[in-house]
Amino acid sequence: MMKVSCSQEDLNRGLAVVGRAVATRAVLPITNNVLIAAEGSQLKLAATNLEVAITCWIGATIEEEGTITIPARLVTDFVNSLPSGRIDMTVAPRGQSVELTCARYEAHISGLDAADFPPIPKIDEGVTIKVKSEELRTAINQVAFAAASEESRPVLTGVQADFDGDTLTLAAADGFRLAVRKLTLDNVVEEKVTVIIPARSLAELNRLITDQEEPVELTINPKKSQVIFRLRNVEMVSQLIQGTFPNYDQLIPQSYTTKAVVNLADFLRATRSASIFARDGSGIVRLQVMPKDGKGKIAISARAEEVGDNVGEVDATVEGEETKIAFNGKYLVDVLGVLGEDEVAFEATTSSSPGVLRPVGKDNYVHVVMPMFVQW
Amino acid sequence: MWNVIGQPKAVELLRHSLESGRLAHAYLFVGQPHVGKATLAINLAQALNCEQGIEPCGQCRSCLRIAAGKHADVQIIGRLPDTGSGEAGPKKEISIGQIRELQQAAGLRPYEGKHRVFIIDSAEHLNEESANCLLKTLEEPPPEVLIILLAANDARLLPTIVSRCQRVELLPVPANTIEQELVEHRQIEPDKAKAFSRLCRGGIGWAISASLNERLPQERSLRLNELQELVTTSLDKRFDFATKLAAQFNKNRDSVEEVLRLWLDWWRDLLLVKEGCAEFITNVDQEETLVQHSEGYNVAEIRHFIEAIRAALEQLEQNANPRLVLEVLMLSIPNREEERIKRPSA
Lengths: 376, 346
Description:
The complex is a heterodimer. By secondary structure, chain A is an alpha+beta fold. Helix content of chain A is about 20%, strand content about 45%. Chain A is elongated and about 80 Å long. Chain B is globular and about 70 Å long. The interface of A and B includes residues 50, 51, 116, 225 and 243 of A.
């Protein structure tokens, strides 16, 4: 039994939020469904693909409490097609289908027993922190892309989150690049905690916090198997990845022989245009850093056999020696696209040692890219 | 409670490993179809996730959800249903995509239980690509992950797969054990129980489903009638039958193998009856017919046809043209004595 009414706008938004967690190819068929529960004064929507679970609460008038699961795609598409206005949902006693009415539309949707739905994890205890949502969003943007997308080492598909005092360090690596971002928490954690969160879950979180101003609350359960992110009216639980993240500190070069400070927008433009030629030449983009009386420039070039070549130059403040180094253009474009400062510092040692990029004026981010070996 | 029947050795081994906390990271359960491999695997998954202790209690929420196939951390991976070709029946192989999904899920901590358990049903159906993909995970699964492979014939697995698992062999369940189980725990009439326990050839699962489901015994009598008709019918009809069976083979290999195994049992029984060893026969409910039929053949004929069936099975396994194999088999069906008498002498 369930009898509830809510607005089409709220239900539509709620379904869109939890829809991101609905399983696409399900091991458990019921995970293709969305859980609808009328409890207290709110309507709870929940979905899980067993990696991420999203719960969303929307305002509703509840006449009879109750719960059921119905196919997510179907109900989402249907509700989306309805005119705005009031929606009434009814489940008959012991019924396994929902009757949904809105204005002059009516539908019956068959569902499955909510008792069979995988339990949406509740995390009440464990290490809890608060972090500004804007800060978290930027940090995820700067790190998550560096994680491996499909990898025989599952730990690399995740982002390591290291909580220590009032600092959270996020790090991701895929074997060719490494991104490390530090951010300040709103509170202090008592014990040091390190977990690996799937990069996909964080990308999902980023979509959820786009229009949130309040801080995000995050709790890691005592077993360190799950993390919950609490937002306004929405909760997201992600399974954590097991394993040990590589010790990345030793991968960040401690010194350099050449350092160039460049305007970020210029650098990005020159790298993008070189990448066009690099498409046909294994993605190789060549950087030539040339110092000249305390000033200098970087020439960014690419060439592909039988296609052609290009070169672009940007002004730079160069310290140290002249150097030549080549990278995969995609990696450079990726990192330059998320730095978000006016200037970037590029550091290199030899053409076979990793290059380092840092935003100028902030010391909370470092990005390391492995070079490519080329004949000059 | 371990509810797999007639496998004391395997259960003892697993129980001991659980108690001493020294479970292998991957198991290979080998045994003929319906012998209880999946039941044992599910039991082990229950034991690992049970809320009560290290024995599968079968009562707690976790055990019930695993038994019902609803537990988020216990997955059974088998051939997917074939939706592409428009024919009923599963795909031919377990794809690499399924294995990659397994690996991805294995990287995550358990969702609701204590361990993630992946049961790969009919591991023979792993193709070379997916088997190789599985190797790394199989060798070193993440902690809290157990992989259980089920196979009827481990000779058809890559040796690299077999060597990475602890092999547990499940022997055919003795007919008496099955009969006892059916009568005592499943309230089956003794006559039926006796018949099913012999017919299942040690595969207790078949006996249990046959006792629950009328269709299986009915299908069997249908097949036996078919067989009895074939021995007296003309060559044309036999060839028609071969064509039909060959078409069925292309859709569902296993069902044809099933038919031939049934024939093998039948002719083995004829031989036993002929030699006066009727107490060992499989088709206990057909003893009279068997006696009657056995009079029509001599021992050499029966033996010859048994060999022909075995050869046919082997050739089908080796991907010979099914229609040719079955036609050759039809040609080898011996004629019964009375037919020969009736036929005008040439």
